[in-house]
Design brief:
single chain, about 140 residues, alpha+beta, eight-stranded antiparallel beta barrel, two-stranded antiparallel ribbon, about 50% strand, globular
Length: about 140
């Protein structure tokens, strides 16, 4: 019987990577007053996680909370730079010339999605009297 250490280690790494990201797989939404503001779709092919996101246009209060959906989520953009570490999925999407970055933490069939705000953007918000957006809670859709 022969034993190939490199093949065994590679298989173990692939299995661990897939197990770590498996809780993120699915379709996640955030609704406000009956309108879908956010829709995130994550899937795996072999062991590679991929997905797309659609974000609507909302009005945010002085406290950084959504109080109105101006346009529901309808247009999807692909995700890139997906990585998983310490229970957090990190990913990005293009928004015109800008790149939006997010962090996602899953707890069962809900998840916290955080828009990662740069110091520069945080200052722009502050200069305009706006707070940084708070994390939103997504719910996994049942198949």
């Amino acid at each position: 019987m022969s034993f190939n250490v490199a093949s065994t280690v590679a298989a173990l790494i692939l299995t661990l990577g897939q197990t770590g990201t498996q809780p993120f797989v699915g379709t996640w939404t955030m609704n406000f007053e009956g309108q879908t503001f956010a829709r995130l779709e994550l899937q795996t092919a072999d062991v590679t996680l991929s997905g797309r996101i659609s974000l609507g246009v909302v009005h945010i209060t002085d406290q950084g909370e959504i109080d109105q959906v101006n346009q529901p989520a309808i247009n999807f953009t692909p995700l890139f730079d997906l990585s998983y570490r310490d229970g957090v999925l990190v990913f990005a999407r293009k928004d015109g010339d800008d790149t939006d970055r997010f962090e996602m933490r899953v707890n069962g069939d809900t998840a916290q999605l955080t828009f990662v705000v740069t110091d520069e953007f945080r200052q722009v918000l502050k200069d305009n009297g706006l707070p940084a957006p708070k994390p939103i809670t997504l719910t996994r859709m049942k198949p």
